[in-house]
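testing teh design pipeline on a random one, pls ignore if ur not involved
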């Protein structure tokens, strides 16, 4: 076998191994994502860690692990994950959004908003960032700014249940009764059944609003 074919065969075998590693990592990441959708974040973390053991450059797994850690109220660890993702791809909007969420949880609000803005400069239609930026404004008491974020989400995706929940809450606080009722009803129509806390809150607020006489 001459040198050319030897190198060709060696490179082909190496590429096959790399492709298999990517497929295996993606498979673990997808399983973790399925657990996260169901709110089973600890189980999700196991799969994301498996994915990263196989492929430390799997940016999806870094982002998803960070999101799971944020949901588990472990923002310091989540921040490490988003920084790992950004070291691989500095223009990854998901990573900037996740980093913003971690910073918000750590009460570093200005830095969080800078991260959200960075994500939106990269992808102006990044629904998750608009949603979380709205939640952040809400928690700071900046309801009108929060409402603008939720309305932007709904322009992009009218079936985003998180935005309807946020919009309903903001309209409720701002005293816009009919808009709040409309938004909370839409949320209850769209929300998956395992969002039990949000469903309970929406039903309580809706009952209060529908029973109120203006």
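output:
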């Amino acid at each position: 076998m001459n040198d050319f074919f030897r190198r060709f065969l060696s490179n082909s075998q190496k590429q096959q191994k790399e492709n298999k590693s990517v497929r295996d990592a993606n498979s673990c990441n997808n399983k973790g994502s399925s657990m996260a959708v169901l709110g089973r974040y600890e189980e999700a973390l196991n799969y994301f860690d498996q994915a990263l053991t196989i492929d430390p450059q799997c940016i999806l797994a870094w982002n998803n692990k960070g999101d799971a850690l944020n949901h588990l109220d472990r923002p310091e660890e989540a921040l490490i994950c988003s920084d790992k993702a950004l070291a691989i791809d500095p223009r990854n909007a998901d990573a900037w959004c996740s980093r913003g969420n971690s910073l918000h949880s750590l009460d570093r609000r200005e830095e969080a908003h800078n991260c959200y803005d960075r994500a939106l400069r990269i992808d102006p239609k990044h629904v998750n960032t608009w949603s979380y930026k709205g939640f952040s404004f809400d928690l700071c008491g900046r309801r009108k700014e929060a409402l603008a974020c939720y309305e932007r989400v709904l322009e992009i995706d009218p079936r985003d249940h998180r935005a309807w929940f946020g919009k309903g809450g903001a309209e409720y606080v701002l005293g816009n009764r009919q808009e709040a009722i409309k938004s909370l009803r839409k949320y209850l129509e769209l929300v998956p059944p395992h969002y039990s806390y949000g469903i309970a809150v929406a039903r309580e607020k809706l009952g209060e609003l529908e029973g109120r006489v203006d």
